[in-house]
Design a protein that fits this description.
- There is one protein chain.
- With 214 residues, the chain is α/β, with parallel strands linked by helices.
- It has 2 domains: 32 residues; 159 residues, Vaccinia Virus protein VP39 (Rossmann fold, 3-Layer(aba) Sandwich), CATH 3.40.50.150.
- The chain contains 10 helices and 7 strands.
- α9 links the parallel β4 and β5.
- α9 runs parallel beside α10.
- The longest helix is centred in the first third of the chain and has 14 residues.
- The protein is globular, with a radius of gyration of 20 Å.
- The relative contact order is 0.14.
- This is Methyltransferase domain-containing protein.
- InterPro entries: SAM-dependent_MTases_sf.
Length: 214
């Protein structure tokens, strides 16, 4: 009887043109990625509720298997991405200008991750130099992205890569041009990202012999 009811319900949904939509919700890639959960919770998480970077899903899938435990990472902007990297690399430092947001993020971070507070302006842009070191990966996903990308490129290791999120935005064009002039090539990963339903782009900039082995 239950099976018959289920079949009848499925026939009804197909009859009114909703069968494909329901199938997408039940079995589609967006469910596998955790997009529905991220949309309803307004948190960048996967299907299990674990943190994800707010990048496009194609780039997350590309990046995850290429991260190494010895990597050091610097991030403009902080959030679930900081937690995600911390579980996979040696250490990560993020700079953030929003004190209230820092209060929410900092208690969730493990020992190998930290968030430093800097006001918007030159101190924020130049925060990548404060530790006096170079980084395997620098992520530009906060404020003043053109200035941050242009400044941060000098603080990459020889094999280092730079990630620019939402790179489809026209006002980030100058950063892309500067990185190209500095000898970097670019790979664009276009697709959906957690939480939102729009198409966006995450780009990785790299040189020969890079740490991701591109």
């Amino acid at each position: 009887m239950i099976k018959k009811i289920k079949n009848n319900t499925w026939d009804l949904l197909n009859g009114i043109g909703l069968g494909g939509s329901v199938q997408l919700f039940l079995d589609g890639a967006l469910k596998q990625y955790g997009w529905f959960r991220s949309f309803h919770t307004k948190q960048s998480v996967d299907a299990n509720g674990d943190p994800l970077p707010w990048y496009t899903y194609p780039f997350i899938l590309f990046l995850k298997p290429r991260l190494k435990a010895e990597f050091t990472v610097f991030e403009y902007g902080s959030g679930n991405s900081t937690r995600w990297y911390a579980a996979r690399v040696k250490e990560i430092t993020a700079v953030e200008h929003d004190a209230d947001w820092i209060k929410q993020i900092r208690p969730k971070l493990p020992a190998n991750a930290k968030v430093i507070e800097k006001p918007l302006g030159d101190t924020y842009v130049q925060a990548v130099k404060d530790a006096g070191r170079l980084y395997n990966i620098i992520i530009v996903d906060g404020r003043n992205r053109v200035k941050c990308a242009n400044f941060a490129v000098d603080y990459l290791t020889q094999d280092g890569i730079l990630i620019l999120d939402n790179s489809e935005r026209e006002w980030y064009q100058k950063a892309k041009e500067y990185l190209k002039e500095s000898g970097f090539r670019r790979l664009d990963f276009i697709g959906m990202a957690p939480i939102v339903g729009i198409e966006t782009c995450t780009s990785v900039f790299y040189r020969d012999g890079n740490c991701l082995e591109i």
